[in-house]
Amino acid sequence: MISNDFKKYIVLGILFVFPIVIYLFFASGINNFAKLPVLTENLPEISSWSSLRGDTVQFKDRITIIGFWGNDIENKKGDAFNLNQKIYKRFYQFKDFQFVFAVEDGRQKQIKTVLSEIQEGVGTNMVKWNFIFGSPNQIKTLFETFNSDVTLSPQQSTSTVFIVDRSLKLRGRDDDEDVGTLFGYDASSVAELNNKMTDDVKVILAEYRLALKKNNTKRQK
Known about the structure:
The protein is of the alpha+beta class. It has helices at 4-33, 77-91, 108-122, 136-144, 190-220; strands spanning 38-40, 50-51, 63-70, 97-104, 129-134, 160-164, 170-171, 173-176, 180-182, 185-186. Strands 1, 2, 3, 4, 5, 6, 7 and 10 form an 8-stranded mixed sheet that branches. A two-stranded antiparallel sheet has the order 8-9. Helix 2 (77-91) runs parallel beside helix 5 (190-220).
């Protein structure tokens, strides 16, 4: 007959060990299978574009959320607020994470005003919001290299934002339950930012952390 003390040990073992086993199982699954698909490779670098702060803005070695505002800046305030609240505030402290928006040259003053309004409204440190400036043709050309199913407005603008990884590759979903291939995320939709983009940013940041951990392990050997 099994003693009561032994039964207690079995129960305690199940209570403490089982959750750890489950965690390790799912963690292993995430590390092995949760990759954000590459949809377009060899995107052009943006380091030659002029920027709002005068510094160099680049894709390489950054996890970038990029949007295209063209000359339609006033109508993008709502998108900016949604992105700030749902994406930027959650991830901006990650070292290599950044926002980039392509804007028509000559709109620098307008961007400064809008950026100030947003920052006052949300109280977030927006140091990783970057704006690059080019001609309408330059913006259109950069956008077309993404090879997405999204179209720009006549103002060279869209509410869709994209994820570009550290190797200049467009990342997204190739098995989305709603559209099949999801090239970007609708910043005007809080639901899409909450239900899709947040998860996908988590995945790509987890990919980077895992790669960094592997590299550090190799160096220590």
